[in-house]
Amino acid sequence: MKKGMTLLLSLLLITSWTLAGCSSSSSEPQQGGGKAPAETSKEPVEMLLRHTQVGADKQKRLAILQDVVGKVESEVPNLTFTLDGVESDVNRKEKLRGEMAAGNPPDIFELFGSPDSKVYAKEGMLLDLTPILQELGIQDQFSSLEPFTYEGKVYGLPIGGSGEGFFYNKEYFTQKGWKAPTTMAELDNMLAEIKADGKVPLASASKAGWVPLMLTNHLWSRYAGPDITAKFATGEAKWTDPGVVAGFAKHKEWVDKGYFKKGELGFEYAEYTTQFTSGEAILMYDGTWKSSVFKEGQSGESLIGKVGFFNMPPVENGAGDQTALMRDVNNGYGFSAAVADDPQKLAAVKAFIKNFYNEDMQVRGLVEDGVLPAMKLDEKVLTDSITDDLMKEIVAVLNASQTSFPAFDALVQADVTTEISNLQIQKLVGGQTTPEKMAEELQKVQEEANASVE
Q: Which domain holds residue 291?
């Protein structure tokens, strides 16, 4: 176990990054830098905090945030937070983009790391956190800050880490005498047999494109290699690569064979979870954060001890590392650059970071919500914290993967993400395009996006 937990430290959240900007000193004043002002205004101050912890399955995460907010309000005189909860895609693709364009983002908000934070930092909309991290002494405590780093400065902090794979119904697998599949051919046979038993092989919900794309992303990364997506924006690779098309084709094959519940284009993400927790679907491809629903008081409580987790199995003649797992630390918090002009708000930001980013809260997120730590934790603390069998199984899968890759939307431009998320994946699922045509359409948008930054 000790060896496994040591590997967890290095594999959970990609690799540790040493940020040059975090340890450098300068005679020039830095945004957000220095010590907190000796005095702050006695006037009441209100701050808007945008979060995406909405829905029944995110209540534990919301409770953690509310506790942090309560501590900050008690430490900063005359401060009141207003919490604005919205769905993740609405926050990222609608509200935040519009607010950034208008120059009035919330004081604190959930922020997607790459590429969003770099775009907003370049435009001067984000608070430079580098001096604050130095002041608090935590500049070297994060497993990775790379997605939130621009020109050597840190503009956001990850909430936690995640990986993606298949959750499966252990009771059903035991009845069939199955273990987690070790090849794609074996998984294909299982899906066919599940359907023959009258069950739904794979949970599905494709109203929001990011949900099915978790699976598609891993499929094309198996066939074309885990590093190919990073090459689209540089022009070194194309969406029309035969391996990418093969990944699209495998997803379409599973749709055509009826392995997903009918009507998936109309299902929201919440329905995705329900299909699995109700026993209707035997497998669910999702992020490790989903483990939080299989705890007491949550929607998957009846499945405690009955759920397992496995990585996408290798494919025959697949490219690159066939153990590669999608892992990232791309979801985090950002802070408006305007906060630097208000001593009370700046003090509140420092208090928020101090109270959210510490060992106690990182462990609480892991234990209560299944969110992998974003900060480096003591090995014994990790070992003692992971007590449930599902999380141990997830850790074993993470440790067994030799490499990792980020999700596609951390690597390609926003226009490309919109094309595949809001149009192409739904057309593929709905039978309105082919894998080849989908790849061609994506490549057109990719080339336009690449040309716009040349």
A: 162-326+402-452
